[in-house]
Every structure is written in C-alpha cells, then in structure tokens.
Amino acid sequence: MLFSALPFLFPSALAAQPSAPSPISAPLRDLEFGQLNFLHTTDTHGWLAGHLQEPSFSADWGDYISFSERMREKVEAQGQDLLVIDTGDRVEGNGLYDSSEPKGVYLSEILRHQHIDVITSGNHELYKQNTSESELLRTVPNFRGKYLASNIDIYHPETGELVPLAPRYKKFTTKQQGIRIVAFGFLFDFTGNYNNTVVQRVGDTIKEDWFQEAIRDTEVDLFLVAGHVPAHSSEYRAIYKEIRGIQWDTPIQFFGGHQHIRDYAKYDSKAVALASGRFMETIGFMSIDGLSTTNGPSKTSHPTFNRRYLDNNLFSFYHHTGLDAESFPTKKGRKVSQLIAESRTALQLDQVHGCAPKDLWMSRVPYPNPNSIYTWLETKVLAETLKDESRGERPSVAILNSGAIRFDIFKGEFTQDTTWTISPFTNGFRYVKDVPYEKVQLIMEILNQQTKILSTVQDETEPSLLPLVSPEQLARPEEIVVDDDEMSDQRITFDMSGSSQMPLSAPNTAGKILPGYTTKDDAGEDGDDTIHAPISFYRVPNCIQALISANSSGVPEKVDLIYIEFVQPYLALAAKFAGLELDFVKGSDVYMPNITLTDLILEWVRKHWQCE
Ligand SMILES: *[C@@H]1O[C@H](CO)[C@@H](O)[C@H](O)[C@H]1NC(C)=O
Ligand SMILES: *[C@@H]1O[C@H](CO)[C@@H](O)[C@H](O)[C@H]1NC(C)=O
Ligand SMILES: *[C@@H]1O[C@H](CO)[C@@H](O)[C@H](O)[C@H]1NC(C)=O
Ligand SMILES: *[C@@H]1O[C@H](CO)[C@@H](O)[C@H](O)[C@H]1NC(C)=O
C-alpha cells in the first residue's frame, strides 16, 4: 500500500510538513477532561501548514485532524463528548490562501477535511465580494449543518436576494452524554464589510424573535455561543446578559477570537469565554463537567470549567493523547498533511528568494532598532526601492501603517511563503505632491500620538475605518503609558495586566524552559499547556515613515507625500488636524503603478539577501 510505504521513504512525512522543524520537548500541564470537551481554533488566516520556522507551532492541519480524531476516541471511550469549534478569519495572511488564483481554492479543500461541529465567519471572510461569496458557495456547504451565522446576511450572487449566510442557530444533543445544546454563531459589530453582505449589530440581533425564542427553550443543558468576537467584549456581555435575563441558571460557553490572543473571561460561575490565539499557534481546549443531561438524574447543573491553550506541535499532541509517532497519526490526518505538502508545492511556496542574515521583529525589540522589521523597512526597503520615475529626484516621505506587516522575519531562508506571511495585503501606493515637510511631521505626530482624537472623529464620520496596527497590538492593555523619552518604558512585561502575552519565536537549544506564551487570564496563570519563560514586547507606532531621495542639502522644504493606500482616510483626518488643505481623493495619484509593498520587499530581498 502506498501510504504505508511512504514513511520509510520520507521519515518526516509521518506527520507535519516535510520542512517543519521537530518540536522541542518541554514541561507540560495536563488536560482535565470532563463530560463535554472542546477543541477550538480561531484566526488561522491560512496557516494550515503550521509554522515552518518555529518548532512550537510546527504541526499542520493534518496533525490537528489526527489530534481531534484521537481525542474523540479517547473521550468517547470514557463515555464523554468532544466538539470541535472554529470561529473565523480562516482566510488572508498566508500564501496557502492568498497565492492561488482564485484565492483560497487549495485552502478550502484542506480545511473541509476537519470534522468541525460549529463554525462561524470572521471579518476577513467579508472584506471582499469574492471571499464572502466563496463562503456562501463553498465553505457553508462543506460544513452544512455546522456553519452558523446569527447576524450575517448576504446578497445571493445568483438571485440577488438578501439571505442569511448560514442558519442563525441550531439545537443538537451530544452523542455520548445526551447534553442538549443550543448554539449560535456571531460576528462582532463589524462595519468594514463589502456591501454584498450585511452584518447586523449584536445588540439588535439579540432582540429578534428567533433569538428570544431560542433562549426561552427550557430543554437546554448548555448555551454554546461561538463567534468571531473577543472573549472580553461588549458584544459577548450583551449576549450573556440577554440569556441570563431569561435563563438565570443555564451554563453558557462562549468561544471567541479576533484579537489574536489567548484569553479567558468569566462572566459568572456558569458562564465563561475562551479565545484561542491566532495563526495555528494555539489549539484551545475546554472541558465542562457537572452539566445536566437527558441521561442524568438531576436537572440542576453545577458545572466546573477547565481551559488550556495548547502549543500547536506534535510533542504536545503526543503527550495529551498518550500516543507516539507510530500510533498518533490517523489515515485522514496523514492524507491531509500530504495534501498540504502538494498544495504548497503547486503554489511554489518553498521557492527561496534569499536568506535573512538575522531575525527581524515586529515587537520583540523597541522601535527604532537595528533588529526591528520597521526600521529595516524605513531605512532599507522603502528608502532604496520606492521610486517613481515620473517624479524624478524629488524628495519624498513614505508613510505606512505598522499593521501592514503581519509577521516577524526569521534568520534563514526567505521563501515565497515568508513573503505572504509578512505582507499579505495587496495595497499599492499613492502620493500627494508638494507637501511641506514640517506638515508631514505634524501629520505623523497626530497619527501616532493622538489616536484618541482620531478614533473619536472616526466613529462619527467614517465608521468603517480599519485599525492601523495589527490585532495583537490593539489587544494590548490600554493603560500602559508609553514614555517617548525613555525607551525602556516602552517595554511591556507580562505581569502588568490581563491577557498580555507574546508568542514564542526563537527556539532554545539548551533544552531548558523555552520562551513563549505565558498567559494570564481570568482563571489565573496556569492556562498554557507548555510551561514557558516570558518574553517582553514593545509598543509599535501606528505609522512609520521613510525619508526618500533627500540629498545632503538637509531637510527638504516640500516633499511628495507617499502613502500606502490603506492609510488614506486616516491621513485625510490627520491632515485636517494639521491645518492642511489636502484633497486625498482628487488631489492624489498612483505612485509606482501596479507595485505593492510586497513587491518592494521581494525586490529588495532578492537583491540584498543572497544565500551563501
Ligand atoms: C473574483 O473571482 C473571479 C473568479 O474566480 C476572478 O475572475 C475575479 O478577478 C475576482 N475578483 C476580484 C476582485 O478578486
Ligand atoms: C455596492 O457598491 C458598488 C460600488 O462599489 C455599487 O455599484 C453597488 O450598487 C452597491 N451595491 C449595493 C447593494 O449597495
Ligand atoms: C537636492 O535637492 C534639491 C531639491 O530639494 C535639488 O534642487 C538639488 O538639485 C538636489 N541636489 C542633488 C545633488 O541631487
Ligand atoms: C497596471 O495598472 C493599470 C491600472 O492602474 C492597468 O490598466 C494595467 O493593465 C496594469 N498593468 C499591469 C502590467 O498589470
């Protein structure tokens, strides 16, 4: 049989991707199983191949399928249940999704093999017409009966009719325990969707008849609210209050996401929320014991909840299933790992463009810094590549939002895959000519320091403005004061607040405790399965700027103000505050037509980072 022969030919094809690093052993906290157990992913953003340069997160979607199959076998042998949840943002952010034409065709074939019990849409599924239509026409049918959309409608591409993206909710009973569950699938109050979808505000949705009826069902042992909604959020609080107002005693389990963090919220002794990170770094585990069931004698439940954030690697998976490299992979899991490898080959994601001489970090070093990816962009990439011949030698300043970069660069091979993970967006550049340099500096100051003013105005005038920084940065605690004069004060350490945390990046070779996630949440400090040493991280500005082609005669008087398209509405607001009459809509023009930030990075890397 072909499958049994493969492992002998390619030992690493047993599981994970062929080029993935082996996981490093580390001390682990065990899982506490219960009557009802959950595995949860969120914000995977196309990373179904796992992380090929980080041992802690090197398992792929095939391994996750094996893991959930083995976990189901394990708990069902005890008469317990397992449910698998995914809460959206499956798209955009990795070459496995973005680099195919049309986007997502390989990804959706890989994704569909996982048995998912409740799946919902994120905001990224709704930015573009093609993406949301592909949800409607592919993902919803692939997960028929599992996909829920409590507050999303879509104009059907064929009939033009406004229809629910998927059913609003469902009621089902678990196989082993007979636990009766009413499940919902929400998206936060998102306004940046393309106009072919309609996202209803959560506060309005929960007043609708169907919702009111669903929460009045008394034959329910658990309300399950899955959603692309932060665990701590006004949306989940509103849903919690609405259900609690009707059912004072029924347990509620929320699963959430969007902020890209590990987080756990306790709404009351019988209502909790779990958020499970980002990018296939984390598999969230949740168990509930003490639920009432159709099989059980008692109608009163006294639930206990347990949560765990698993590092997505085979070392963790073997440990929690009690299996090993021989006994762990399932037939389906292996097949999907193989399918991922084939898809990556077809998309040429392993094509090497250069070799990075060192790590470049988004937020593990202060900014500016020789090891900051933003400093590198400003002083090298933009300064040396951003040049529109039609503008001659005119000096210019380029402004980028820091959220345009989505991931760190690791020392070593810079592949096609790396290109997509660090810069997945397709924004090009525009410019406005003859802007006084001093005013540009004032605009930068406004963009970076007075975000509160900007966000107030934004709510009134432009409700659909998207954040300038990455979701991880947004999720970081507000109360931390950044002192511009004192770089060390920009350091945000782990013990300062709520769920501040940072992922593992550099593997440790000494065999001791590795740096990585050290999560603090509403249940304490024991949530992570892998015991890690903490990592510090730093605030990054909303926007960065590069001064380009200014000559030695000092600071220019007027410049071409170049900017990545994404920031235009912010720039327009900031310019207004700076007292500058600029029409960014009619008074701007395309800079370097058809060139994106990704193109510039690639050009620079090919030229300067040749492999030895
Ligand atoms: C949408 O998808 C179609 C078919 O896959 C493709 O031809 C078209 O260019 C896509 N549109 C956008 C805006 O990406
Ligand atoms: C959506 O926006 C496009 C322009 O981008 C417009 O042509 C179309 O009529 C709008 N559709 C609806 C339903 O508003
Ligand atoms: C320096 O820039 C100014 C405009 O800012 C230009 O007039 C001058 O020719 C430039 N000099 C050189 C050597 O490029
Ligand atoms: C460049 O973009 C313009 C529109 O901005 C388009 O008409 C043209 O076909 C593009 N050229 C290439 C080579 O993609």
TrEMBL record:
Report any Pfam family annotated for this entry. NadN_nucleosid_C
Q: Where is the Putative 5'-nucleotidase C-terminal domain?
A: 359-571
Which segment of the chain is annotated as a signal peptide?
A: 1-15
InterPro entries per record: 5'-Nucleotdase_C_sf, 5_nucleotidase/apyrase, Calcineurin-like_PHP, Metallo-depent_PP-like, Nucleosidase_C, Pesterase_C1039, YHR202W_N
Would you say which domain of life the source belongs to? Eukaryota
What GO molecular function annotations does the UniProt record carry, in alphabetical order? Answer: hydrolase activity
Q: Which cellular components does GO assign to this protein?
A: cytosol; extracellular region
Q: Which UniProt keywords apply?
A: Signal
For the biological process aspect of GO, one term held by this record is: nucleotide catabolic process
Domain (Calcineurin-like phosphoesterase) spans 37-261
Checking PANTHER family in the record gives: 5'-NUCLEOTIDASE-RELATED, SER_THR PROTEIN PHOSPHATASE FAMILY (AFU_ORTHOLOGUE AFUA_3G04160)
| Protein name, as recorded | Calcineurin-like phosphoesterase domain-containing protein
**Biological source species:** Penicillium cataractarum
Lineage here is: Eukaryota, Fungi, Dikarya, Ascomycota, Pezizomycotina
